[in-house]
Amino acid sequence: MAITAKKLGQTALNVSGSVVTIVTGVTGGHTEITGLWLANTSSSSRTVTILAHGTGTTSTYMLIPAKVLAAYESLYIQMNGSPIILNATETLRGYQDTGTDVVVTAYGVEEV
After folding, report:
1. What gap in Å lies between CA 34 and CA 77, rounded to an integer?
2. How high is the pLDDT of residue 55?
3. Which of 60, 76, 90, 95 has the highest local Cβ count within 10 Å?
4. Separation of alpha carbons 6 and 107, rounded Å
5. pLDDT digits (tens, 9 = 90+) for 77-90
6. Tell me, what's the pLDDT at 57?
7. What is the overall mean pLDDT for the chain?
8. Boundaries of every domain in the chain
9. Handedness of CA 94, 99, 101, 102 (dihedral sign)
10. Rounded CA gap, 24 and 89, in Å?
11. pTM of this structure
12. Is 92:55 a contact under the CB 8 Å cutoff?
């Protein structure tokens, strides 16, 4: 198996009801998310929800439910020894309460 460390995905979130895919698991292997940057580029606070694995938006899939980011706040989340594992076709997704001004960047490795 080849292991490739890289930026796995980067996108601006959308409003609730319009969930955005940040990362999709690599075909023929798995993806390990080891770090997430959340950056609020707005002059207003935003509430962010991050989901994983399934396609639903219920609490079953929520990894980070309703995290409030202050105006212009950034947050880095490092998964020390406990990465988020995505199998092929599984996804890391997210949305925010209003606007499209929170940018999420995921880092990690793909094993194929």
Report:
1. 8
2. 72
3. 95
4. 6
5. 998 889 999 999 89
6. 74
7. 92
8. 3-107
9. negative
10. 6
11. 0.91
12. no
- The DSSP line for the chain is --EEEEEEEEEE--BTTS-EEEEEPPTTSEEEEEEEEEEE-SSS-EEEEEEESSS--SGGGEEEEEEEE-TT-EEEEE-SS-PEEEETT-EEEEEESSSS-EEEEEEEEEE-
Write down the pLDDT at residue 81.
87
Name, in order, each residue with C-beta under 8 angstroms of 8's C-beta and a sequence gap of 6 or more. 22, 23, 31, 33, 106, 107, 108, 110
Cα separation, 96 vs 12, in Å, equals 9
- Answer CATH for 3-107 from 3.30.70, 2.60.120, 2.60.40, 3.30.200: 2.60.120
- Which pair of tokens denotes residue 95? 């949305």
